[in-house]
Amino acid sequence: MARTTTPKPARQRDTVDTRPTGPEHAGGDFNARGRAALKDEFLHDSLAMAQTRLAGSRTATLAALPDAPELRERAYAIKQDVIAHLDTYLERLADAVERASGHVHFASDGADAITYISGIVARRGARTIVKSKSMATEEIELNHRLEELHPGLEIVETDLGEWIIQLRGEPPSHIIAPAVHLNRFQVAETFSQVAGEPVPPDVEDLMQFARRRLRQKFLAAEIGISGANFAIAETGTIVMVTNEGNGRLVTSLPPVHIAVVGIEKLLPRVADLSVFLQLLARSGTGQKLTVFTNLITGPRRPGESDGPEEFHLVLLDNGRSQILGTEFDEALYCIRCGACLNVCPVYRQVGGHVYGSTYSGPIGAVITPLLKGDAAAKDLPNASSLCGACWEACPVGIPLHDLLLKLRNRETREGLAGRDQSLLFAGFAQAMAHPAAYRLGAAAGRIAQAPFISAGSIRRAPRPADRWTGTRDLPPIAGASFRDRWKEGI
Amino acid sequence: MADREQFLAHVRERIQSSGARPHEHYQPTVAPDSVWTPSRPRPPVWEPSADELPERFLAELRALSGTGARVADETAARDYIIELARHKRATLLVRWGDEPTDALGVDAPLAAAGTRVAVWGRDADARALCATADLGLSSAEYAVAETGSLVLVTSPERGRAVTLLPPAYVAVVPVARLVPRVADVIAHYAQAGPLPASLCFHTGPSRSADIEQSLAIGVHAPGEIHVLLVG
Questions:
Q1: What pLDDT, on a 0 to 100 scale, did the predictor assign at position A267?
Q2: Contact, B226 vs B205, CB < 8 A?
Q3: Are A392 and B31 a contacting pair at CB < 8 A?
Q4: Contact A270 B205 (CB under 8 A)
Q5: What CATH number is given to the structural domain containing B59?
Q6: How many domains does chain A have?
Q7: What is the ipTM of this complex?
Q8: Where does residue B30 rank: exposed (0-12), middle (13-18), buried (19+ CB within 10 A)?
Q9: What residues in B contact A233, CB-CB < 8 Å?
């Protein structure tokens, strides 16, 4: 069969909505977004299916690994060492990248990283940038800022799901399945607009359209920007895993490759990959290995005719160093596999957009307030049942439920919890500490609650208890207390 | 712009900051999830003999919708490639110019069958031709039985685009280059000195589940992969 695509250097620009999609731009507050998401039936079905599929195959492939418990212990120990000696490993990494003829830039924040990248765009006269696999650039809103700084510059996300949501001007809704909230009819509508003619709502047709369109962008691009799953201090190697192959194209075809990597992504040695590669894909998708696992060390070597001529590693802090040396430092052990999203009962109900953040699900609820401050994300640590399923699933053993609780505690210390909530819990603490007050309170509550009970629970209570019933049902106080029943021999 | 020394000093200061509060760390394997529980029934450790490796590799590759075959020698591999090119009515094949791929001797028979061959590292336009080629052909450093992966490294004769851009791709690997596990390959390169510019585990056809979680094959990289194990 002859090939079906005729790639040609493309200069036409696809309609891309580049409105920033960070938390501060998401509509409404957490509760308002949550209420809207709860009404979206397709989203529900889709999330339930994704969780069942991904978490199911995760458990099956990990169970087939004889030494999974030991790998998890080792992964935790390696990350603990990396974070405890991050300065040393960062220095080693930077030296190794430079030995491999790459450039290193330490970026304190998003603005710093953008200035550096913008300098490369200007120097190379770039008109098209292809991107792959980078939550870090999403975090710093790189696309939007670069397009502001360089009118006419086109930045194309090349992961199929990422491209779809980029065309629609939406943020990702899952770490590894960014367009999980969309159906094929919505995708077909978006592609048809880009194509200027109808693209049928058939998965194969949609995929072929994306392949043709994105192939033109890969061939035209002057710069490829990626993230990384790991950066290896010993050799200056960055490791990227992808299934579609876009990650390998972005880092192989354009003459310049820029990797934007959070400083916590370090591993000391190449040998450590045997631990993390065994855990990463199994935990994320239940694959033993993703289709492409790329180890990239510097630019192309003398005599080679593909691979980038220039390799830049941008090491991004952007709030991460503030987590070092605190009781939250285990949050920096995360390898972004998405396993915690796939088991979270809250994520299952509302999906990723409700979190209003680049990172969603349990790890998003932990990392967002740590990176952006509690005031910017105070609802997130509270959006958890603290069931601990996230901690159980985590291949690095991050105690996510514990960190969520510590974050709630920090919010209260910072006075972010609100007066009503503080009042409510102060009263609760008094009652729990004094048996007489507890009995009195329970008796009073039994009488006072009567008008508010409907269908066995309290759905709407007056202040200050409305802080609770605004988002949850409250079980009523039982008619006879356990103590009374105990006295009567139950 | 952050100065490197300043940046590292700041990180150092944070790690050692007086604000650091020692906290009790969880033991990762006390999580109740069965897969992490040390006392769970463990599947036996796979200790394959050399004979088992080709079969396991081919089974894993087929499970990923790849095509694989064990062939007796390089002549049989060459015949497979020529037949594939004929079947696909391929007008252009790009291949690596390394010694093992040269040794297959596909160029003349393919030309005779109407398929033009471009050789990476030798033909100046090989890179540009990858974008329009019907078939890519390469060798591989290793093949991993446990996962059905090819291990591809770069050099002047071994370009990435050959294995990435054509819609169909063939790799030829001697049986002696089969290893049981990914960890074996990592352990080798951890000892082997400087890494090549690119080292890639290429595991089956390109896949995506981004539209309605339906599997789509070949979204960016080859959707059709043939691995020939020689020997």
A1: 98
A2: no
A3: yes
A4: no
A5: 3.40.50.10420
A6: 3
A7: 0.95
A8: exposed
A9: none
